[in-house]
Design a protein that fits this description.
alpha/beta, Urease, subunit C, domain 1, nine-stranded mixed β-sheet, binds zinc ion
């Protein structure tokens, strides 16, 4: 799968994908042409056919070539929906169990993901080195929570605040942080370890036992501290938020991406837009978890919260669409629900035009992970993350749903990860036509 010789040196031949209809991650008008890939990057996009001696040549057969998909809200390590099931898991077991779900994301055409609580720099490196198959990862380590907040899963009888640092598999996802000084240290520690962003649980949540959805969490001083420490290193803060008040506080205090936002009103959607921040909807997780949650061990209180935010989700999309708020693309699926990742495309298309949904999952998500122009686009100088779609997803976005059945070609960083088409070496003497 990976082109490495026994010494571990990458040998990546030049790649030409010709006869493609190109969606560049932004322009709704497809262009016919070829893409030339060299050393993992796009060297050239031409409107004719390109033939290069010695290159691997792939005939796209007039299919739609688009940037690899990006999911900006996943939890790679969330191997079960009900976290209690992980009580006796070590981190090695958690990691081993996460590997199939990580690989499945790439199979669905996601060449990049942003993990917003759980995955660390070690997993990111294993993916980057090709030791395990999966998307490229942007990670933030554990999500930060206040005592009693969305990420605090202690029992009422448990007063130990350091449980999140024991390495127990159940505590993979969160770190308890109270007070601005503790926040300063916690942010610096995670950035020291290589976090790409910092995640704050800035409101109540569905899965948490002690808080209401509408609660806001973290004080102004704590949020401002996190944002200023992150921005000092060129990084940013993302925040879990549901209600308008929580969203407004987070954004006003410096948070760059607000996640979920199901209960946002239109005025707050405009507020997010005016502050150049991003909303990252994750609608599929509510829709699918509502179907299966009870059977998988969610409590009646959690199921009640789940139904409440699921109902509100579509209105959130309408408000953000009407306000012109920048929307990323996320899924947030835990454990057994992960199969439904690409259903998010179909849910979003109930309100948005397919091209806007695709922009969210390519160009806009690339901005979110601070890789504008390098990811989420087909242009010279971009990293060569490419997928080929059987049919036109701008007309039928359901082609992306499922497990990648309609994606015969997946290229990640210039390496052909899947090719169900015919590939052949170009004859040395052929010239472009
Ligand atoms: Zn999440």
């Amino acid at each position: 799968m990976f082109n490495r010789d026994p010494a571990g040196v990458h040998r990546m031949p030049m790649l030409v994908i010709r006869n493609a209809l190109i969606f560049d991650g932004d322009n709704p008008d497809l262009t016919e042409g070829s893409v030339v890939v060299e050393n993992g990057e796009i060297r050239e996009v031409t409107d004719g056919a390109a033939h290069l001696p010695g290159a691997i040549e792939i005939d796209a057969g007039g299919r739609v070539l688009m940037p690899g998909l990006i999911d900006a809200h996943v939890h790679l390590m969330a191997v079960h929906l009900a976290m209690a099931k992980c009580a006796d898991y070590t981190m090695t077991l958690m990691t081993a169990k996460s590997l199939p779900r990580i690989r499945n994301m790439l199979e669905r055409g996601f060449t990049t993901i942003r993990d917003v609580a759980g995955a660390d720099h070690g997993l990111r490196q294993a993916l980057a080195d090709g030791d395990i198959p999966g998307p490229r990862a942007f990670v933030g380590g554990p999500g930060f929570t206040i005592s009693g907040g969305h990420g605090d899963h202690r029992r009422k009888t448990d007063a130990r605040r350091d449980r999140d640092r024991t390495g127990n598999g159940q505590e993979w996802g969160s770190r308890i942080v109270d007070g601005p000084e503790e926040m300063r240290i916690a942010v610096r520690e995670e950035l020291r370890r290589g976090a790409d962003h910092i995640k704050l649980m800035a409101s109540g949540g569905v899965g948490s036992p002690h808080d209401a959805i509408e609660d806001w969490q973290f004080s102004e001083e704590e949020i401002r501290m996190a944002c200023s420490e992150a921005s000092a290193r060129g990084k940013y803060v993302c925040a879990h938020t549901y209600g308008s008040e929580a969203v407004r506080r987070a954004v006003a205090f410096g948070v760059r991406t607000v996640e979920h936002c199901n209960l946002i009103d239109e005025a707050t959607a405009r507020f997010v837009r005016d502050h150049d921040a991003y909303v990252v909807p994750t609608l599929v997780c509510y829709e699918v978890t509502e179907q299966h949650g009870e059977a998988l061990g969610l409590t009646p209180y959690v199921m009640e919260k789940l139904r409440f935010v699921n109902e509100a989700g579509i209105r959130m999309l309408e408000h953000c669409e009407a306000a012109g708020t920048k929307m990323g693309f996320g899924t947030d699926l835990m454990g057994e629900m992960e199969y439904a990742q690409s259903m998010e495309f179909v849910i979003r298309a109930r309100v948005q035009k397919p091209v806007d949904v695709l922009r969210s999952a390519t160009r806009i998500n690339a901005e979110i992970v601070q890789m504008e122009g390098r990811l989420g686009t087909i242009a010279p100088g971009a990293i060569a993350d490419l997928i080929l779609v059987d049919g036109n997803p701008l007309e039928n976005i359901a082609l992306l749903d499922g497990q990648g059945e309609h994606i015969p070609l997946i290229v990640k960083a210039g390496e052909v990860w899947r090719n169900r088409l015919e590939a052949r070496k170009a004859a040395g003497s052929r010239h472009g036509g």
